[in-house]
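Hi R.,

Here's the input for the adenosine monophosphate complex you asked about:
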Amino acid sequence: MSTLFEKIAAGEIPADIVYSDDEIVAFRDINPQAPTHVLIIPRRPIPTVLDLEAGDAELVGRMVLVAGQIARDVGVDAGGYRLVFNCKEDGGQEVYHIHLHLLGGRKMSWPPG
Ligand code: AMP
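And here is the predicted structure with adenosine monophosphate in place:
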């Protein structure tokens, strides 16, 4: 069974894709929590950040770099933005295919809810 995000990466489910390469896809969140809310995912399904292995370090680093490039492209780099990985139930994770939330375009509060 493919995850929802594998299907988006494969083009089987429509999404507003803002970035794509051979290992990473980024698309706008369907229920945005900020004026800019983009999800950056690996094409390869990894359930949670706890499942990352040493060999995935470059992939995760590239996800952060892609987030920075998108932030520049959409113009939230000057004001700043927030990057979030939710992990499992207490972290608020709903989709078990790792995704980096890029949130920007408004002032974020702390602590998060
Ligand atoms: P998380 O709670 O960290 O697992 O985040 C999952 C995110 O996926 C939520 O912010 C949802 O709004 C978002 N989401 C769920 N389904 C879709 C979809 N079909 N297209 C885009 N974003 C989605």
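One thing worth noting: The chain has three helices and five strands.

Cheers,
M.
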